[in-house]
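Methods — Computational structure assignment.
A single polypeptide chain was analysed. Its primary sequence is given first, followed by the predicted tertiary structure written as structure tokens.
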Amino acid sequence: MAIFGKKDKVALDLQAISTLIGDGGILDGNLKAPAFVRIDGQVNGDVNIAEGLILGEKGVITGNIQTKEIVVYGTVKGDIQTDSLEIKATGKITGEINTQTLLVETGGVYNGKLTMQSADKKLLGA
């Protein structure tokens, strides 16, 4: 289901992944990437992704996240700054969220503060 904008835009789940942290992989430190990233392992540090992030069901991020789009199947313990956030049924987020669009499937869990702004305002400069 493409929820991230115009109909001609490819859904985040269908994007070509440039960086992958596989199941069982652990990264202690910050992660920065220019394109699309999928995390099925664990990241202990801040995550800054230019385009989009998919956090798989076994994926865990303990740190703050900044990206354009994010789909969460796993667990986030930290703040999220994004344009578009989708929390799937298995997703769990604890922390502050600042986003323009939000979709939470039945079963998805979120605990924290939520700030939403319309798409015509700049997220960081409003």
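Note: The mean pLDDT is 87.
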